[in-house]
Fold this sequence. Notes:
Blueprint: E1 24-25, E2 28-29, H1 33-40, H2 45-59, H3 67-81, H4 88-105, E3 112-113, E4 119-120, H5 122-132, H6 134-140, H7 146-159, H8 163-176, H9 180-196, H10 201-213, H11 219-232, H12 241-252, H13 259-265, H14 282-294, H15 302-312, H16 316-327, H17 332-348, H18 354-362, H19 369-381, H20 390-403, H21 414-429, H22 436-444, H23 449-453, H24 463-475, H25 488-498, H26 504-516, H27 520-531, H28 541-544, H29 553-567, H30 570-580, H31 587-596, H32 604-623, H33 631-648, H34 653-666, H35 671-681, H36 689-697, H37 709-729
Antiparallel strand pairs: 1-2, 3-4
Helix pairs in contact: 1-2, 3-4, 4-5, 4-7, 6-7, 7-9, 8-9, 9-11, 10-11, 11-12, 11-15, 12-16, 16-17, 17-19, 19-21, 20-21, 24-25, 25-27, 26-27, 27-29, 29-30, 29-31, 30-31, 31-33, 32-33, 33-34, 33-35, 34-35, 35-37, 36-37
Amino acid sequence: MSVPPGIVPGVINDLESIDWAALEHAYGPGKDVPGWLRGMVSPDPDVRNEAFSNFYGKALHQGSVYSSTAASLPFLFAKADDPATPDRGAIVALVLSIGREVIEAEEIYAVICGPDGEESTIYPDTANLMREHADAFVSYASDPDARVRRAAIEGLGLFLDDAERAVALLQARLEEEGGAAERGLVVRTMADLVLRLPAAAGPVRPWFNALVDNGALDPDTRLAALIHRTRCAPESIDDRTVPKAILLLREVTPSPQTEEDRASTGPCTCEAEPEPDSDVPGHIAAAFDDLERHGRVHAPTTSLLVAFHEALGARFDDRAALLTEQLRSPDPGTRYDAIDMARCVITSWRGDHTHLVQLIGDCLKPHDSYTSAAAAEALGKLGALAEPAREALAAYIAVLLAEHRPDAWASPHRVQRRAHQQAVVALASLGDERALPSLLIALDTDTDTWRAVNTVGHLPQAAAELTPRLIRRLADVDHSREWPDASPTALASALAALGDPAAVPALTDALQAAIRHKQWRTAEPLLKALASFGPRAASALDIVHPLTDTGSTDVRTAAAAAVWELERRPGRVVPLLERLLDHHRNFDAIGLAGRIGPPAAPVLPRLRQILNEQVEENARNESNDAAVLNTGNAWTLVHTASALWDIAGDSEADTVVSALLNAWKDNDSTARDVLACLNRMGQAARPALPWIHAALAQPHRGDDRWSGAVAFDLEIERICRSLVTRLQDLPEAAPTGEQ
């Protein structure tokens, strides 16, 4: 649906004349929107705050625009125009937020499908409405109220389509604004304008150059000009760009000159963090705390430096030099915010990151728990790449244990407790037993035990001390509850990682309890944990085997896999597989067929059928110019092709290589699994050598937002190097498939 008829820009109808119930917001009909609009102009600030919160949360939910959002705009513009409106800056900021969302999304969502199936052009319609109100932002940008001006400046770059006029207005605003924050906003908006309207580039680039070189101008504005010039003119980046930025950054944040100045820098901190609600599970409370901290900014230059790093992209040496300056800054807020920027570089780009990792390790200071927690958390996300900070982590933990209390894991000071725990997790992730004492305290108490359970699997050498504690906790799980206090899934995973066969009876008992209470969601990970012990868990067979004919498909598949691992008798498992493979995307069943190998030959016809169906579906998608392939399609190709090779070998080599490379092309996240199969294929994988070379030469690691991305990429690099060595050294005449 489009902007509702009767809503004329500049003309405000009585709110009651609009059928708000026929409109919508994120949570249903928009009948409550007029109440929020009235609340925004209430003389009571609490009422206004609640009204804005409701509108942002429901009528502009996560940036989405709805029919009620568009219908609100004339009212909002009218109130922004009225000098008597309280908090006009907040009104203008809300209008700007709506406009920003629709301008950015109008091409992507030119037509969307409404909840009733009706086609809607609300994004381009609302974007046009904003452009029609561009002159309102011209007026707001010169308003006497600084808050109104600040909220309006960005609108000059977003809604004016006359590039020459927009440039002139922004240049005038820079001359008239006295605050560094406002001038920085003008400079950023000018860069946004160039990126949106390339016709503005001609007059803007020399303007940027003049600002950067104007020694009489404040360093904040010069730094902003230099950085935003790189955004809209990346060709301007040269060997002098980052050194100049560093010099300006030092002017913005001058080094302390005296001991008194140095002492005054102090630790970086925010308001004291309240203890979580005791009724909320620890891991849930921690997740929400992490989200809240993620949005914090501790230094005025942070957003500017984030934009600079994005503009520098693959210029790793430049980014490392800039981060070195940030992480050594005398300003604690700058240091704090640099930690996550450094982590992003390390996890996103391949290379030698030793120096940056050590600098993050240097942020582990016992007197600054707030920054130390961020540094330890970042190191924990680096996995094996955190190795250069191993000793810094161990030293930090030792100081806390010695100076504060031996059970620092359960410190009454929440920020210090989090810092210690994150450091212990990071050190344990490196397999370092110096993390063990704190983990044992965690398992012996009820303080954030969930964090320890998720960590102990990295220390299999300490299984003798860890396994009995995990067993006791698993025995205490109340399987009659759908969501027990202790996660049996996490406990099962930890016991499997430790690999101590003493856990088998406890896992078997837990599986029986889960079956008794029909907790199939719990039964599956318990089956997988038992399977990890192989024949050492054969005592559980009488419990496991009946599950191959009960519960959900996932449970039946996990039970079949466990039966195979526990006794390795194909005759017992292959008939089960034939039924499980009726679900063509049952990747666990397909993987089980591959692990069984040649004895699973009876399922080859079904695997070939699955593969052919997927290839045909992909061909149809390509012929229909499908914009996006279902990512599950690529995974189907990978799992099925891998199983075909493991069962049939050389006879399927051409088919397998073709399927693997097609999957890799369609979904880069399949790379590790594709390479694992190619590695098993030996010389039969030679046709993939160009792809392998390209993967090894790729400087970017990929998406670092999900857990395990670094470990996956390190594995990809390892397999690629191994394959290149093997395939280049193998003689051409060697039999296909020779290992």
